[in-house]
Write a structure and sequence with these properties.
heterodimer; A: two-stranded antiparallel ribbon; 50% helix; B: alpha/beta; five-stranded antiparallel β-sheet; 21% strand
């Protein structure tokens, strides 16, 4: 197998950062996780990300210092990053949020479940799914 | 104690009697006079001396006529006549002198004393009777006239005292408005004295009013040219002097003021109610936003409690003994429960949010379809029989009403008795309202809980049955938001009938 998966996580809740790490290891994905704790930090990092080209981005929508969708839109506006799979994580699972995320170009939408098992299961499944898709696309 | 009227009647009775005074020193003469005059007068009073005359006079000096013998010892007839004339009432009483002598001296003296006639002895009874009867007739006529005058004077007095006693300004006018009579309140109201008002026209006092027009909301003018609001009422009075009109003028300044202040108070009250309502709406909205935000923000830390307890269990499970695992399990289940309550609260707030609901004609059958679809598994697993009647079109919201049905039916399935579950959904329309019924044969609800169960987080069976205690609160929120009402009719052990009323959509 090739390199470690370069995964970017934009998440301001440290608790969720740990849960996402758990999910990735639960999924058996060998990864390099880069975390941004708020929106300005993440936006500033876009040029750098264009250089390193992440394999996937996990993006929390409700950030204390801004709307996660802004980051998604910036990515989609960048020629280098526009095809990087993005999984949106959110604690508010309203239909409107889901639609807005889809319009902005999210590949998957995962409401953060309360139960740990569900969380591990859903996040790891979403990540695996985007990798399978992008792997399929590469063939 | 005699009242005024009683005294007047007694006086009437006294003056009604026609009395004759017969004066002669001879007892025999008196007896023959009495015999002659029998039946002419009501009362014959006899006297044999001046002293006796005086005594009778003092008692009652009202006589129709006096027959006076001229020749008497002690005091003669002329002297007695002089005495009689000193009595005010008897000053003009006709006196007939009876005398045996024709003497010019007697005649002059007699006429000088106001004698009306002389009769010479021996007396011819027929002549005496006829002369006396003339005086008696005269006295009767005088009496009648006097009585009539008294009656009319009393009537006028009564009328004037009534007019005077009237609390309102009262005017008696001719048909053209000329003032004939006015009472003191009338003078006071306009600032005049009585004689200044007589013969003035009432329309001078109430300038913009014309005889015969409506008497409301008029403006009257005082003597000093100041104006004030009045109201008048009139009644016609047909008299021998022609048509007279009684006009009552009422000063309505106070009433106008009172009306005005009531209007102001009402306006003020309305303004305050509006203000309070707005304040209440603002604070309700603020509270609502707060509750919403709180229920939202509390969810995040709770999620962490659940996930981290489980993470701890997962990672360190092998080092935890059984009791520690149990404790951790309680943490998780409590947090999960709280999370459910919060999400129920949010659901309730969404369901009862007064804003943003679209009211439309709804085929409520479709709401019921949705609800039954959502409950299909539960219905199947509890082998419940669902009976549904024909439901009418209503004004409401399909999705919200589906939620009402779903909550009610799911309660019916949950709070079942030993009997096979049976739920009946029906409706009846009456006028502009439809009443829906969701009836079950479950455990029922005691009357004291019929109100309380619709409150948020109110649960009757905390331990036996799962649930958040928000379902009925949501139903109530939705139904009220749609302008209806909801209640339960139930008996313990028999079942419950949840009923709600909505506006009918018409045809």
């Amino acid at each position: 197998m090739a390199h470690k998966k370069r995964i970017v996580l934009v998440e301001d809740n440290p608790g969720d950062v740990i849960l996402v790490r758990e999910s990735l290891s639960f999924a058996g994905i060998d990864n390099d996780l880069v975390c941004f704790a708020d929106l300005p930090q993440a936006l500033d990092a876009i040029p750098q990300l264009e250089g390193t080209m992440p394999d996937a981005v996990l993006l929390d929508l409700s950030l204390t210092r801004g709307d996660g969708l802004t980051f998604l839109q910036e990515m989609r506006a960048s020629p280098a990053l526009q095809h990087v799979p993005v999984i949106v994580l959110t604690s508010s699972a309203s239909k409107a949020d889901r639609e807005a995320a889809a319009r902005a170009g999210a590949n998957a939408f995962v409401p953060k479940p309360t139960q740990l098992d569900d969380f591990l299961d859903q996040v790891s499944r979403a990540v695996k799914a985007v990798f399978t898709q992008s792997a399929g696309g590469a063939c | 104690v005699l009242t005024g009227t009683a005294i007047a009647q007694r006086e009437d009775a006294r003056t009604d009697r026609i009395r004759l005074l017969l004066v002669d020193d001879s007892r025999d003469n008196l007896v023959s006079l009495e015999a002659t005059l029998q039946g002419l007068a009501d009362e014959l009073v006899c006297a044999q001396s001046g002293t006796e005359v005086l005594r009778h006079m003092l008692e009652n000096d009202d006589f129709a006529a006096i027959l006076l013998d001229v020749k008497m010892p002690e005091m003669d007839g002329f002297e007695i006549a002089e005495l009689i004339r000193t009595r005010r009432n008897a000053r003009h009483t006709p006196i007939l002198f009876l005398t045996a002598y024709r003497s010019d001296d007697h005649l002059f003296r007699g006429y000088d004393l106001g004698a009306v006639d002389f009769l010479f002895k021996p007396i011819v009874p027929e002549i005496l009777r006829s002369k006396v009867s003339v005086f008696i007739e005269l006295a009767r006529n005088v009496q009648m006239l006097k009585r009539q005058r008294e009656v009319s004077v009393r009537a006028e007095q009564k009328f004037r005292s009534l007019l005077e006693a009237a609390p309102d300004a009262t005017f008696i006018t001719r048909a053209d408005g000329r003032i004939m009579l006015v009472n003191t309140p009338g003078c006071d109201l306009f600032g005049y004295v009585t004689h200044e008002l007589l013969d003035q026209n009432l329309t001078d006092l109430i300038p913009r009013w014309r005889q015969g027009s409506a008497g409301y909301d008029l403006v009257a003018m005082r003597r000093n040219r100041t104006e004030f609001p009045v109201e008048i009422s009139q009644s016609p009075l047909n008299t021998e002097e022609g048509l007279l009109i009684t006009t009552v003028v009422r000063d309505i300044t106070e009433r106008k003021k009172a009306e005005e202040s009531i209007r102001e108070l009402n306006a003020e009250l309305e303004r305050r109610v509006a203000e309070r309502t707005a304040a209440l709406t603002r604070s309700t909205e603020a509270l609502r936003q707060f509750a919403w935000a709180a229920s939202h923000d509390l969810q995040e830390p709770l999620r962490m409690v659940v996930a981290y307890s489980q993470l701890l269990q997962r990672k360190s499970g092998q080092w935890l003994n059984e009791s520690a695992t149990q404790l951790l399990g309680t943490i998780v289940s409590s947090a999960v429960r709280m999370e459910q309550l919060l999400s129920g609260l949010r659901e309730f707030m969404q369901a009862s949010d007064q804003n943003s609901v679209r009211l439309e004609r709804v085929d409520i059958e479709r709401s019921l379809d949705r609800a039954l679809e959502g409950l299909a598994d539960t219905i199947a697993s509890s082998s419940a029989t669902i009976k549904r009647g024909v439901l009418p079109m209503v004004i409401g919201n399909e999705v919200l009403l589906a939620q009402v049905f779903q909550n009610l039916i799911s309660n019916a399935l949950k709070y079942r008795s030993e009997r096979p579950v049976e739920v009946q959904i029906s409706a009846e329309t009456s006028g502009a309202e439809c009443t829906f019924s969701v009836r079950d044969n479950g455990i029922g609800i005691a009357p004291e809980y019929h109100e309380r169960i619709f409150g948020v987080f109110k649960r009757l069976h905390r331990d036996e049955y799962p649930g958040t205690g928000i379902g009925l609160a949501i139903c109530k929120g939705v139904v009220e938001r749609l302008g209806g009402r909801i209640w339960v009719e139930s008996e313990l052990g028999t079942g419950s009938d949840f009923r709600f009323v909505l506006r009918a959509a018409g045809s």
